[in-house]
Amino acid sequence: MLDYLKQPMVKFLLRFAGLYILWFLLYDVWLHPDGALDARVAFYTIWMAEDVLQLFGYVVLTDSARIIAVEGTSGLSVGDACNAVTLVALFAGFILAYPSHWRRKFRYIGLGAVSIVVLNVLRIVVLAIIDTVSREWTEFNHTYTFTFLMYGYIFLLWYWFVKRDAVSDENRS
Predict the structure, then answer these.
(1) Is the Cβ–Cβ distance between 105 and 113 less than 8 Å?
(2) Cβ–Cβ < 8 Å for 52, 121
(3) Number of C-beta neighbours around residue 75 at 10 A
(4) How far apart are the first and last CA of the chain?
(5) Torsion angle of alpha carbons 160, 162, 168, 173, nearest 10°?
(6) Could you tell me the residue range of the domain that residue 158 belongs to?
(7) Is 16 a member of any domain?
(8) Is residue 73 part of a domain?
């Protein structure tokens, strides 16, 4: 039984499960009820999406209650589940659970986190533009298309890290 626990995949899954539990305790018990982190991230997400939409010539309306709307639409609410905090934590958990050098992990987590936030801002922008055409399309794309794209992107980032880390290890040998 103990030999089974020493297998690389089992070790990875156990590390990831431990990090998930740690994240759950940190976020769901302390950070999320406080609300400050999610509110601040949502504010900056809306602010960046507003700038991008205005760059494309849209008249954008926002309010302090996490709403961003292209003029003539009912707008989008950037809730806690839509601000990318959990996505960045999931990505960081994958990288931290993988056996590699800490320096490489932290560098990749930083770059990956920035790219996830940028992609999330672009997601909000595209959803706001889709909302000018059809609310039903907005709901469908929010629920299915962008969920698949965001989680697919996180998996792809993790895959690239694993592949690049394996190549780096081969070059050192």
Answers:
(1) no
(2) yes
(3) 17
(4) 31
(5) -150
(6) 9-165
(7) yes
(8) yes
Closest CA to 82 of 33, 49, 57: 49
10 Å Cβ neighbour count for 110? 11
Distance in angstroms (rounded) separating the CA atoms of residues 34 and 39? 10
Instruction: Please state the domain count of the chain.
Output: 1
Specify if 2 maps to a domain. no
Nearest to 86 by CA among 47, 113, 125, 123: 113
β-sheet with 67-70: strand ranges across = 60-63, 67-70, 76-77
Residue 63 DSSP SS3: strand
Nearest alpha carbon to residue 94 among 80, 113, 81: 113
- Measure the CA–CA gap between 141 and 48, rounded to whole angstroms: 20
**Residue 141, in any domain of the structure:** yes
Q: Name the token pair of 95.
A: 């990288």
* Rounded distance between C-alpha atoms, residue 153 and residue 138, angstroms: 20
pTM listed for this prediction: 0.89
pLDDT per residue as tens, the chain (173 positions): 677 777 888 899 999 999 999 999 999 898 888 889 999 999 999 999 999 999 999 999 988 779 999 999 999 999 999 999 999 999 999 999 999 999 999 999 999 999 999 999 999 999 999 999 999 999 999 999 999 999 999 999 999 999 988 656 555 54
